[in-house]
Amino acid sequence: MTADVSDLDDARQRLGLSFYDLWVRYIGVGGSRDAHGIRSYLTGRDTSSDADHDHLVIALNEAFVDAGQGGLLPYRQA
Q1: Distance (Å, whole) CA 58 – CA 64
Q2: Are 38 and 22 in contact (CB under 8 A)?
Q3: What is the enclosing helix (H) or strand (E) of 14?
Q4: How many C-beta neighbours within 10 Å does residue 29 have?
Q5: In this predicted model, what pLDDT tens digit does every residue of 8-39 receive, in sequence order?
Q6: Residue 71's pLDDT band (cuts 50, 70, 90)
Q7: Is the full-model pTM beyond 0.90?
Q8: Ramachandran sector of residue 53 (left: φ over 0; alpha: ψ -120 to 50; beta: rest)
Q9: Which helix (H) or strand (E) holds 68?
């Protein structure tokens, strides 16, 4: 099972991350899209490659760990 884009945005909101905060974390784990592209994807106005989606999952999962919370998201690619 993979995380749907709405799951990613729900996780972002649960963690209290702005789109910009998530984008900074996403860049830090190797993502390459700009902040506008990430916001467009998370709000359903754009699509994303599996790799970009998984970079967002990595960034969110690291934020969950940093916050001492569960709720880790599954990846699209194995």
Answers
A1: 10
A2: yes
A3: helix 5-14
A4: 15
A5: 999 999 999 999 999 999 999 999 999 999 99
A6: confident
A7: yes
A8: alpha
A9: none
The whole-angstrom distance between residue 20's C-alpha and the CA centroid of its chain comes to 11
Classified as helix, coil or strand, 38 is helix
CA 1, CA 76: separation in Å to the nearest integer?
8
| Helix pair 5-14, 50-66: axis angle to 10 deg | 20
What pLDDT sits at residue 74?
93
What is the distance between the alpha carbons of residues 31 and 16, in angstroms, rounded to a whole number? 20
**What is the sign of the dihedral through the CA atoms of 49, 45, 64 and 3?**
negative
Return the domain boundaries, the chain: 5-66
> How far is residue 29's CA from residue 58's CA, in Å, rounded to a whole number?
7
Environment class of residue 56 by beta-carbon count within 10 Å: exposed (0-12), middle (13-18) or buried (19+)? buried
